[in-house]
Amino acid sequence: MSYKTFSFEIDGDGIALLTIDLPGQSMNVWNEDLISEFGEAVDKFLADDAIKGLVVTSGKKSGFLAGADLRMLQRTASMRGSATPGEMFDAQFGMNAMFRKMETGGHPAKKLQKGEAFAKPVAAAINGLALGGGLEVCLACHYRVVADDPKLTLGQPEVQVGLLPGAGGTQRIPRLIGIANALQMNTTGAPVRPQKALEQGLVHEIAPRDEVVARAKAWVKANPQVAQPWDKKGFKFPGGGGAMHPGAVQTFMGANAMAQQQTQHNFPAVEAILSCTYEGSIVPMDTAIRLESKYFTKLMLDPVAGNMIRTLFVNKQAAEKGEKRPKNVEKQELKKVGVLGAGMMGAGIAYVTANAGMEVVLIDRDQESADRGKSYSAGILQKAVDKGRKTQEQMDEFLARIHPTPDYEKLADVDLIIEAVFEDPKVKEETIKKAEAIMPADKVFATNTSTLPITGLAKHSVRPAQFIGIHFFSPVDKMPLVEIIPGDETGDLPLAVALDYVAKIKKTPIVVKDTRGFYTNRVVPPYINESMQMITEGVNPALVENAAKMLGMPVGPLALCDETSQELGLRISRATRAELGDDAVPRTKVDDLLELFVEKLGRKGRKSGGGFYDYPEGGKKHLWKGLQEHFPLADDQPTVDEVKERLLYANLVPAANCYDEGIVSDPQSADLGAIFGWGFAPWTGGPMSYIDTIGAEEFVRTAERLAQRHGPRFQPPAKLREIAAAGGKLYDQAA
Amino acid sequence: MTEALIYDAVRTPRGKGKPDGALHEITPVELATQVLKSIRDRNELDTTKVDDVVFGCVSPVGEQGANITRTAVMSADYAETTAGVQVNRFCASGLEAINMASAKVMSGEADFAIGGGVEAMSRVPMGSDGGAWPTDPALAFKTYFVPQGVSADLIATKYGFSRDDVDAYAVESQQRAHKSQSEGRFKKSIVPVKDVIGEVVLDHDEAIRPETDMQSLGSLNPSFAGVGAFGFDSVALQKYPELEAINHVHHAGNSSGIVDGSAGVLIGSREAGSTAGLKPRARIKAMASIGSEPTIMLTGPEYVAAKALKKAGMTAKDIDVWELNEAFASVVLRFMQAHDIDHSDINVNGGAIAMGHPLGATGAIITSIVLDELERSGKETALITLCIGAGMGTATIIERVN
């Protein structure tokens, strides 16, 4: 018998070797073909007395198996609505049943427990990373040998896409390594390395990579009759399990609280993983895996998982692989990058560039300033060295790639220039001219700016077709998003180069239109303003901050305002008004608040006198007690749901406006930009996904209601009204 | 409907709920047994006339398991015909048992019934019976479970009680308990607990610390800041988002102590009493139980008191003496605030902060204390209530009969 997705060879000892090697794919994943063929192979193995045992391994150099094909999961999720929950359960339970059959040899658990039957031995030879379903198939084996590669990862990342490990991971892991360790692994998605896996008891043996199969076979040969620990009489969870064991009770109680703190009740997967682990620890394996599949089905019935998979994985990967990259431009070799300006942004850009293995010419007005920019990298690296994450040698090599200098002549052989000087058109103009005079004429000049229109800056360039904007976020080394902004005259080359560069530094790009504030800075200020507007109305600031956190925002908008600073808020507001006129930008109470804070109270932001919060040295920040003197609490406070809605729509409406105006050309980019740019509630899949989930009609209705109550800033844009009227979806438009 | 009358109330002293506590060597069945024997012997009661015994017990497992009440009834050599049932209304179990015994009398099911409770916390630790609420993720998430201590701190934060406020309350509880003990106010109800050779092991509430002052309490660290930071504060704030943070003010010194103890109250109809030649001491005027918001958990007394007053056709002004179990200082302070009660009218002999809270027994213990207090002070009415885990409240209004 031959298979497409793996080879199946029986050796002289009667031991079968199943080597998973998906044709035409760089990495093994569980897809429909593999699941179906694997099931056939398990049946054959169990039925054929000539086969004494089984070893499962991978034929890929890239790893053992990286989990389920996310597109397959998307297809399953799309069954929602057309299939009954029972049908979805049946579709999902197949893998669990298949693994269970493999580990029991097809015998009833009772017979195994009484020693009246045994399973045929199955061992996993884990010769590369095993994630999700990749690890789960190994856990259903009776023995696991893993390659001695310290970088190899074993983990259950399903939670990161809003799912749970649905092929026994929530059951076998706690039975092997205890409930606390299992919860850590399954609710965070953080992988473990071979050594730790061995210490915890997740694997049995570590061996050189080219010996894992031989070791696995040796074990199979030596153990012809086996059963899983949980199929043996007297099995107990390591560290205790169930509803009565004091240790397990404490673990669940603590985990429940921690999970609620971290998820704010927004990620059903985390709760489902906890429930599977808790309930599963009270019942035997056969019941437990059915429960697991039921909870998995429940998650599939919830839009959260589908939205998270689409934005956080499918669309993110597509963007990072250069979906928006002009196909007619060959991949650009980027070995050396000139970074102009060694301030906070330039220093950060130098770090991420050097981190990706590129040489960096870091330029500032004098050697000392340029050196200071390099020292930023040294600081980050020193911390990594101190924590043992990097060696001194690695640090030295890294730093040797950054060449600080005031000398523009050093730009003669760079492959790309990224300018990050002060946000002043005059300074930018000088820098552009100075650099273009030296840099190779066929290379691209990119400017990092958050406010200045690219087309305007391109006027100072002698080669506007090779000029583009790249908007990094601060701190550059931490923020995952980059906005790429072609100007009116920008050609294909700079867009290709910018996307190639962003791919190298492993950040997520979105391509946005050249308008004031681009995308993220068109949405975040109205959101922060809405929170300040509420303060002027006498809404309890704690309620505002908590409501935002409950929405899934990383910090409250008032705290965010303190970070970006009231001073900047006031400056932007004034600049916008100066440019567009008082009529276009009417004065609001928020302007009064900002003036009060910056000019009268000297509360200019976190770093300058505090803001909405006080920042006691060495203590925890707390809301400024004096706020109520200026903005007394209203007698009638809104409910937390009202505040949440208002803050949510203060994100949704501006984001929808950007889509309407074509600032972001597709909902994918709008969603990616929101989540990775300002941490917009990831459980939603982004503002566009959220609107699709509730329906455009509902969005328009709510926005109009808010507009009536709070002002025209909540008016939904024309495009959304059209979609609502047609009963359509934003993502359908895109397709 | 038949009137339910209180004929007697008996309790053990409360022993420190630790291995060095005086009652640690006494089994919980024996504690309950000595209470039942005392009720019988003090009243020369023919136990064939006692139809049922209802005892509260909050951790009914191990030696407190399998219906400890019936076990104690057998152990106390009551008539074989006397039934026994164990109930669990968490901290109000002892009062709930009295209410159920009263209801049995009122309905005509029983002529005499005993309500009470027992808890040997030094032997069967709190939480020994497990329970799904905090542990089962589906429930904990759905209902925003936090431990009681965090709830008590939440009450203090929401209703504005500072660390000084709760500590001052605790100091006063100690002083009142010490004074009452010194004056012998508890003697009437206390039955000294004896060991297997008949020697008295304890005849007074063991946990009182008269030397407690603001300074000694001030040195104690808040007990629930740790679990709060672990995640429970966030859970509480998600339910009470109007608060910025939880102010953790409670500690061992201003919360109820862990102790061992038992108590029982003899309830009967007027007819049964006169046949037995007993004089009633008080009547059950009204009874009530309610559910309340479970995250803040301990605000039930406010609502259940209102309900019981309404059922009795009374107002707060009609109550002479209030007795609210001192689970945590903030619980009592909030109750006083809600019903505008003067501190001199509530918990006048101190409470569980000084003397301890043997979970299943406390409701009956404070009933015995307040009954003695009414007689001592010549007052008429009392309202007894307790805050309860998972957000409940139980209350009983009693009135002296002459």
Report the order of strands and helices of chain B. EEHEHEHEHHHHEEHHEHEHEHHHEE
Write down the overall mean pLDDT of chain B.
Answer: 98
Multimer state: heterodimer
Q: For the report, how would you describe the main beta sheet of chain A?
A: 8 strands, mixed
Q: Between the first and last Cα atoms of chain A, what is the distance in angstroms?
A: 41 Å
In percent, how helical is the residue content of chain A? 40-55%
What is the beta-strand fraction of chain A? 5-15%
- Give the proportion of residues in helices of chain B: 25-40%
**Helix count, DSSP H or I runs of 4 or more residues of chain B:** 14
Q: Note poorly predicted spans of chain B.
A: none
Estimated structural class of chain B:
alpha+beta
The radius of gyration over CA of chain A amounts to 29 Å
Largest sheet of chain B: 10 strands, mixed
How would you explain this protein's 3D organization?
The complex is a heterodimer of chains A (735) and B (402). Chain A is globular, with a radius of gyration of 29 Å. The longest helix of chain A has 21 residues. Chain A has 31 helices and 18 strands. With 735 residues, chain A is α/β, with parallel strands linked by helices. By secondary structure, chain B is an alpha+beta fold. In chain B, strands 1, 2, 3, 4, 5, 8, 9, 10, 11 and 12 form a ten-stranded mixed beta sheet that branches. The longest helix of chain B has 20 residues. Chain B is globular, with a radius of gyration of 20 Å. In chain B, 60% of the residues are buried. At the A-B interface, helix 10, helix 11, helix 21 and strand 18 of A face helix 4, helix 5 and helix 9 of B.
